[in-house]
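Fill in residues.
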C-alpha cells in the first residue's frame, strides 16, 4: 500500500484549533471518548464471534492505557475489531456532520464540550483537544487485512499508509500538546479513568500496581508475604446494576454501595433495583441513605452512566429534585447525554424516565410498608423527611405516598394519614364540623399546652421537622375533609377546638374591662394583646399564645421562597386571661398596687411555662415570687 494523502471532508480551513480552544474546560473527556471507542471495538469483535462471523482467537479482551512522559504520548490500545485503511477513511475522516457552515454556526451557541461532541459525532476528534498530532495504527479482524497507519496533525489534512500492527486491534497515539502536559501524569490519568471507566464492560488496564501476596511460611509457621507487580485493572466489568436482581443478595448491594462510595461510613437503609427496556432503556440501583434531620450537602451523588460509561453526577433534570437525596447509579443509553440542559428539560424521554423513577421509588416504599410495617416505622426517622419533601414537590409521588406517609404523635405511635383521620375525627371535631389536628413543634417548650390538650382527651402530633410547617398546610389540603392543623400553643385549648357548649363568663362587662386595663398596665408590651376569656376554672389564669396563621407563614418563610415579607414581621402574642379563674377575682378585689403585682406574676408564669421568660425578667419574677409566698 502506498502512502496516500487526503483532506478531511469538512470545508473549513482549520477546525481543530476551534475545537481545542472552545472545548478547553472539559478536556479530560478525550480519554472517556477514546476508551469508549476501544471498548466498543472490543465488544463488536465479541459479538461477531458469538454470531459465528469471526472464527479466530478472541483472546483476553483488554484496553490498555499507557503514557510516555519523555515522548509526550498517551496511547489507547485495544484488541477489538480493528479498521482497514478504507474504514479509517470512512469512519474517521468523514466527520459526522453535514457541513462546516452549520458547525461554525452551532458551535457559537453550544455551552460545553459534551454538547458539541454529541451533536456532531466528534468523539474521536476530541483527541485534538489535548494533542497536536494523532496517529492510528490498526489491523482489522478481517482475513487478509493489511495494517493501516493514519496520522493527522490537527489540520484538515491526513496521511494514510501501511501500518505496523501485527495483531488485531487499534492503537490511538496522542502526541500531547504543550498546554495539556498535565495528562502525562500517572495520578491524573488514574483519576480520570477512575471517574469515567470504573464500570466499563471491558477490562481497562493502566500499567501495573504492587500488591502483597502470600509467600509460604517462616520457620515458626507464620505466613510470609512478598510484594508483586500485577496488572492495574481500573474497572469492575460486571457491576451490580447490570445483573439480574434475582442473582444478587443484600450483601452484594451493600458491597456495591461501598464500591461506588469508598469514603462513605454509613450503610444505606434500603435500595431499589431499576430495570426497564420499554418505552426506554434504563437500569440502575438507587440507595436510600441515612438522612440527618436537615438537608445536608450530599457528597454521594447519583451517578449517571450510558452503557456503563460514566457521564455525570449532575442529574438535576433527569431525577426529580426530591430524589436527589438518594445515592446510586442510573444507566440509560436513551438519555440524550450530550446535549444542553435546556434540551434535557424539554426532552420527553427524560420526563418519562423521571416519572418512572418516581413510580418505582413510591412502589418500593409501599411494598416495604405493606410487608414490614414495623421495619418501615423504625426507618421513618430517616426517610420521613425525604417522603414529605417528595409529597410537597411531586404530585404523582404524593398520590401514592398518601397511603404510607406516617404521622407520629407524642406517645410515639404511628398512623397513616387515613388512620389518623379516623382516630380523631369524632373527638376533635369542632362545632363547625372542622376536624382539628393538634400538633407540637417542640414538646418540651409546649408541654403545658400539650398537658391541657391531653386533659381534654385530645391527641397531639409531633411535627418538628424542618419542612413540617409546609407539611401541615399539605395535610389541610389533602389529608382529609375539613382538616385543620393548629399548633397546641396557638390558642387556649377551648379555642383551638371550639365545642358547642359555651362556658359562661363570671365577670360583668365592667369587671372584664377593668381586668384588661390592669393587665395591659402590668404587662405594657406592644407585642402582647390582652383578652379576657371564659374558660373553665381549672385552666391556667393566663396563657400566652401565638396565632397559627401568622406563625406558620413565618415558619414557611424561613424554608420557602418568596415569603420573606412574613419573616420580617415581629412576633405577636395573645394574652388570654381566664376570667373564671379565682385569681382574677382576687385581682379585682385587691388594691391597685397588689393587683398589678399579681397580674404581672400570672403573666410571667405564662411566659415561663413556654420558655419565654429569660434574663433579668426571670430574675425579677423569682424575686417577686419570694415576696408573694
Ligand atoms: P462515534 O464513536 O460516536 O461513532 P467517533 O468519532 O468516536 O464517533 O468514532 C467514529 C468511528 O470510528 C466509530 O464509530 C468506529 O466505527 C470507528 N472507531 C473509532 N475508534 C475505533 C477503535 N478503537 N476501533 C475500531 N473502530 C474505531
Amino acid at each position: 500500500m502506498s502512502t496516500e494523502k487526503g483532506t478531511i471532508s469538512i470545508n473549513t480551513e482549520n477546525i481543530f484549533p476551534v475545537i481545542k480552544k472552545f472545548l478547553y474546560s472539559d478536556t479530560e473527556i478525550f480519554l472517556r471518548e477514546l476508551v469508549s471507542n476501544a471498548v466498543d471495538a472490543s465488544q463488536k469483535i465479541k459479538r461477531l464471534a458469538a454470531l459465528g462471523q469471526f472464527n479466530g482467537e478472541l483472546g483476553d479482551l483488554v484496553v490498555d492505557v499507557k503514557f510516555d512522559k519523555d515522548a509526550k504520548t498517551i496511547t489507547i490500545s485495544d484488541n477489538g475489531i480493528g479498521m482497514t485503511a478504507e474504514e479509517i477513511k470512512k469512519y474517521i475522516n468523514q466527520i459526522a456532520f453535514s457541513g462546516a457552515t452549520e458547525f461554525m454556526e452551532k458551535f457559537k451557541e453550544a455551552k460545553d464540550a459534551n454538547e458539541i461532541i454529541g451533536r456532531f459525532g466528534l468523539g474521536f476528534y476530541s483527541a485534538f483537544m489535548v494533542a497536536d498530532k494523532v496517529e492510528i495504527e490498526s489491523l482489522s479482524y478481517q482475513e487478509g487485512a493489511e495494517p493501516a497507519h493514519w496520522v493527522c496533525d490537527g489540520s484538515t489534512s491526513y496521511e494514510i499508509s501501511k501500518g505496523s500492527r501485527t495483531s488485531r486491534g487499534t492503537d490511538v497515539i496522542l502526541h500531547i500538546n504543550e498546554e495539556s502536559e498535565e495528562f502525562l501524569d500517572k495520578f491524573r490519568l488514574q483519576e480520570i479513568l477512575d471517574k469515567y471507566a470504573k464500570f466499563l464492560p471491558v477490562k481497562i488496564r493502566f500499567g501495573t500496581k504492587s500488591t502483597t501476596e502470600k509467600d509460604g511460611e517462616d520457620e515458626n509457621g507464620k505466613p510470609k508475604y512478598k510484594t508483586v507487580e500485577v496488572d492495574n485493572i481500573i474497572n469492575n466489568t460486571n457491576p451490580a446494576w447490570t445483573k439480574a436482581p434475582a442473582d444478587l443478595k443484600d450483601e452484594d448491594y451493600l458491597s456495591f454501595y461501598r464500591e461506588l462510595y469508598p469514603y462513605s461510613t454509613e450503610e444505606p437503609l434500603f435500595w431499589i433495583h431499576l430495570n426497564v427496556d420499554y418505552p426506554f432503556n434504563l437500569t440502575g440501583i438507587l440507595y436510600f441513605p441515612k438522612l440527618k434531620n436537615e438537608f445536608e450537602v450530599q457528597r454521594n451523588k447519583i451517578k449517571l452512566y450510558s452503557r456503563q460509561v460514566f457521564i455525570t453526577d449532575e442529574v438535576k433534570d433527569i431525577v426529580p429534585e426530591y430524589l436527589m437525596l438518594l445515592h446510586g447509579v442510573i444507566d440509560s443509553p436513551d438519555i440524550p447525554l450530550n446535549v444542553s440542559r435546556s434540551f434535557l428539560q424539554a426532552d420527553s424521554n427524560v420526563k418519562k424516565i423521571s416519572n418512572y423513577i418516581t413510580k418505582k421509588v413510591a412502589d418500593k416504599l409501599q411494598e416495604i410498608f405493606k410487608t414490614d410495617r414495623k421495619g418501615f416505622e423504625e426507618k421513618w426517622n430517616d426517610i420521613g423527611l425525604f417522603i414529605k419533601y417528595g409529597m410537597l414537590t411531586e404530585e404523582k409521588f404524593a398520590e401514592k405516598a398518601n397511603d404510607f406517609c406516617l404521622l407520629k404523635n407524642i406517645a410515639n405511635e404511628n398512623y397513616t394519614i387515613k388512620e389518623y383521620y379516623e382516630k380523631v375525627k369524632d373527638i376533635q371535631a369542632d362545632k363547625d364540623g372542622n376536624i382539628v389536628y393538634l400538633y407540637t413543634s417542640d414538646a418540651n417548650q409546649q408541654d403545658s399546652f400539650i398537658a391541657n390538650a391531653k386533659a381534654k382527651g385530645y391527641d397531639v402530633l409531633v411535627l418538628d421537622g424542618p419542612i413540617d410547617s409546609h407539611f401541615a398546610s399539605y395535610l389541610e389540603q389533602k389529608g382529609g375533609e375539613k382538616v385543620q392543623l393548629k399548633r397546641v400553643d396557638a390558642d387556649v385549648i377551648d379555642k383551638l377546638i371550639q365545642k358547642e357548649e359555651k362556658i359562661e363568663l363570671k365577670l360583668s362587662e365592667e369587671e372584664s374591662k377593668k381586668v384588661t386595663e390592669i393587665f395591659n398596665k402590668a404587662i405594657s408590651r406592644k407585642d402582647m394583646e390582652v383578652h379576657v376569656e371564659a374558660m373553665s376554672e381549672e385552666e391556667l389564669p393566663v396563657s400566652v399564645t401565638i396565632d397559627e396563621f401568622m406563625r406558620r407563614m413565618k415558619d414557611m418563610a424561613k424554608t420557602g421562597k418568596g415569603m420573606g415579607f412574613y419573616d420580617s414581621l415581629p412576633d405577636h402574642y395573645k394574652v388570654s386571661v381566664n376570667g373564671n379563674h379565682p385569681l382574677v377575682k382576687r385581682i379585682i378585689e385587691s388594691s391597685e398596687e397588689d393587683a398589678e403585682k399579681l397580674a404581672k406574676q400570672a403573666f410571667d408564669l405564662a411566659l415561663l411555662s413556654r420558655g419565654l421568660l429569660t434574663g433579668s425578667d426571670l430574675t425579677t419574677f423569682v424575686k417577686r415570687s419570694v415576696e408573694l409566698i
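The mean pLDDT is 86.
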